[in-house]
Amino acid sequence: MKKILLVISSLLFITTLASASEGLITIKSAHSVKITADRLVDMLEKKGMTLFIRINHADGAKKVAKVLRPTEVVIFGNPKAGTPVMLCSQNAAIDLPQKALIMEDKKGEVTLSYNDPQYIAKRHNIKGCDK
Fold it and tell me: Cα 94–36–65 angle (5° rounding)?
């Protein structure tokens, strides 16, 4: 969990803090959705994280003749870190692997959002798994 938080926090060099709501951390990006997602994927790979899938929801919308602002989800994790968490509380598997949502809002602003690892720990009553 700490490694995931560190990787996401490292994105601050390309973004500025926007907001945080219960369980969700949102960071404002100065770049497009594609560039922000590309940089996230690059950073995750450099940190040795597993990239499970990158979903382009806007492309999916086109297949059903709909228009959706740029929206991507990157699903990533680290079985070495996630497995002990799930061994501690198997229900945590509903929130793992970690997901990042990169989207453009109605104003044209791009944000990156992800589930706060501390919120996940609290939600699943995970204690003593960080050792």
Answer: 75
Query: CA nearest 40: which of 17, 68, 12?
Result: 12
Which three-class secondary structure state does DSSP give residue 17? strand
Beta carbons of 110 and 31 less than 8 angstroms apart = yes
- 29 and 129 Cβ atoms separated by less than 8 Å: no
Task: Determine the Cα–Cα distance for residues 26 and 130; give it in Å rounded to an integer.
Answer: 24
pLDDT tens sequence across 32-53: 999 999 999 999 999 999 999 9
**48, 36, 118, 115: which is closest to 72 by C-alpha?**
36
Q: What is the pTM of this model?
A: 0.81
Q: Is 2 exposed, middle or buried (0-12, 13-18, 19+ CB in 10 A)?
A: exposed
Query: What are the tens digits of pLDDT across the range 80-120?
Result: 989 999 999 999 999 999 999 999 999 999 999 999 999 99
76 forms bridges with which residues in the sheet? 51, 98
- Amino acid in position 121: A
